Amino acid sequence: MILIVDDDPSVTSSLSLLFKQQGMPSHVEHTPAGALAWLQTRACRLVVQDMNFSRQTSGAEGLDLLERIRAAQPDLPVVLITAWGSIALAVEGMKRGAADFITKPWSNPQVLHVVHTTLGLAETALAAAREAVSRDDLDARHDFSQIVGADPRLLRVLDTIGRVAPTDAPILITGESGTGKELVADAIHRNSQRRRQPFVKVNLGGVATSLFESEMFGHVRGAFTDAKADRKGRFALAHGGTIFLDEIGDLDLSAQVKLLRVLQDRTFEVLGSSQRVTVDVRVVCATNRLLADMVARGEFREDLLYRVNLISLHLPPLRERRGDIPVLAERFLRVIEQVYRREGLQLSADAVRWLQQQPWPGNIRELRQAIERAVLVTGKSALAAADFSALAERPDADAVADALPPVGAMTIDEIEKAMILKALSHHGGNLSRVATALGLSRPALYRRLDKHEIAV
Predict the structure, then answer these.
(1) Tens-digit pLDDT profile for residues 274-333
(2) Domain tally for the chain?
(3) Pick from 316, 342, 375: which residue ends a domain?
(4) Cα(27)–Cα(435) distance, rounded to whole angstroms?
(5) 199 in helix, strand or coil?
(6) Are 90 and 182 in a shared domain?
(7) Per the domain annotation, does 132 fall within a domain?
(8) What are the strands, taking DSSP E only, across 77-209?
(9) How far apart are CA 343 and CA 331, in angstroms?
(10) Sheet of 2-5, strands arranged across
(11) How does pLDDT run along the chain (456 residues), one tens digit per residue?
(12) Triad 51, 55, 57: Cα angle to 5°
């Protein structure tokens, strides 16, 4: 049963009919007092409530009702109804425990998306009360083949992915550079109901502000000087599937406003056209920045933060899961064998111990780069601790010997990739410094990362 609380009969009638058409029974109350009284005697799966009653516009009555419902039934999800101009009020409601919010005027698909997602998350929260699971248990139920490790912190993340992936809940993946956020986003898509639909990746750090609308929403011919043909945007390409917005913390405020609107309404206007397009996408975002701190500094919109992180996944740094380093290293050796046409690569026991003792500020990416560099520079098939320590201690000024490989040993593309990997390792994954060191603009660096399939 869904409880609808609103003093406007047209609103309650519309929502009741919509839910009935979806086979979801509902009950209507027009006052906070009536809602609280009904909840004392009836079972309910979800509350959808307005923020204003009795001609008040401050939202105080709605917030009070929310708090009283949460106090009486902490596990009962509440979805708020508010006007687009009052999103700040909805954000305050989410701070106080609301599950999500709907803006007026709404579209029926938008309402159903929020309701189905909220109900799905409530069910997964109840199931999460069981005991911790092993990696074997997780692999038996889900496809986590691209993610290596069995550290308890990682298993908690994978368990959460397995629970929330079937829903359409927006997810924010946080963690230091190189912890595997893109792999986690891919795992969310592969374990979702949308797995057979597109998975579109967008590195927002590589999208120029002037091109944001064209890149994300597309354009029609003649929309601007160089628009010689119609072009689909990333959201349209992701229709029916998942869109992964990486480096969301790099967006400027003007782009954040445009992104917020499409995430809220699932509609957008193609650049150069006045028609609104509706899109069905699951949104997954990632960042290595502290968005809460950026909100406090006025660099990131608080309403956007609450829109993208209904579920938050934090990936632990490699230094906190050292037990996974041996299996990660083994995986990288097998990949390197294929990429560089080498066979029989292996690490000695002391090499593994050396790798486990390092701080790895660039995390998993830096670990792979260190192994790849050792293979390329030493030319050995069996790597010992001394091979890694010698490369780590060698000053850049003296590293002339590994500047160029023997003629015929590598192609131009392989040399370019190796230099990018070396710069990433040297600068701990800081892309701005890497771009500067290589004499590239940040967008140009992103294009080369895509070209060489280097995950960042």
Answers:
(1) 788 889 999 999 998 889 889 989 999 988 998 888 888 999 999 999 999 999 999 999
(2) 3
(3) 316
(4) 58
(5) strand
(6) no
(7) no
(8) 78-83, 100-104, 171-174, 199-203
(9) 14
(10) 26-29, 2-5, 46-50, 78-83, 100-104
(11) 899 988 888 888 999 999 888 888 989 888 888 889 988 888 888 999 888 886 666 778 888 889 899 888 888 889 988 875 577 777 888 888 888 888 887 888 888 888 888 887 777 665 555 556 788 989 999 999 999 999 988 998 998 899 889 888 899 999 988 899 999 999 999 999 999 999 999 988 878 888 888 889 988 877 676 777 888 889 999 999 999 999 999 888 988 988 988 888 888 888 888 788 889 999 999 998 889 889 989 999 988 998 888 888 999 999 999 999 999 999 999 999 998 888 899 999 999 999 999 989 889 988 998 999 899 888 888 999 998 888 876 544 344 444 566 666 678 888 888 889 888 877 877 887 888 888 887 778 888 888 887 876
(12) 50
334 and 429 belong to one structural domain: yes
Cβ neighbours of residue 413 under 8 Å, at least 6 residues apart?
452
Predicted TM-score (pTM) of the model is 0.72
Residue 421 half-sphere exposure toward CB, CA atoms < 13 A = 25
Do 276 and 352 reside in the same domain of the chain? no
Shared domain check, 324 and 306: no
Residue 149 lies in a domain: yes
Same domain, 172 and 308: yes
| Token pair recorded at residue 254 | 């003007």
What is the three-class DSSP state of 277? strand
Q: How far apart are alpha carbons 312 and 291 in whole angstroms?
A: 12
- Chain centroid to CA 7: 37
Structural domain of 36: 2-127
- Residue 11: both structure tokens together: 């609103």
Shared domain check, 424 and 368: yes
Number of neighbouring beta carbons within 10 Å of residue 391? 16
* In a shared domain, residues 156 and 295: yes
DSSP 399-450: TTTTTSPPTTSS-HHHHHHHHHHHHHHHTTT-HHHHHHHTT--HHHHHHHHH
Residues 309, 176: one domain?
Answer: yes
456 lies in some domain: no
Tell whether 96 is covered by a domain. Answer: yes
CA atoms within 13 A on the CB side of 158: 26
What lies within 8 Å, CB to CB, of 90 at 6+ separation is 51, 80, 82, 98, 101, 103, 303, 306
The identity of residue 416, as a single letter, is E
Boundary of a domain, candidates 97, 127, 157: 127
Beta-strand pair 231-232/218-219: antiparallel
Instruction: Tell me if 297 sits within 8 A of 183, measured CB to CB.
Output: no
Q: What is the DSSP string of 326-395?
A: HHHHHHHHHHHHHHTT----EE-HHHHHHHHHS--TTHHHHHHHHHHHHHHHH--SEE-HHHHHHHHHS-
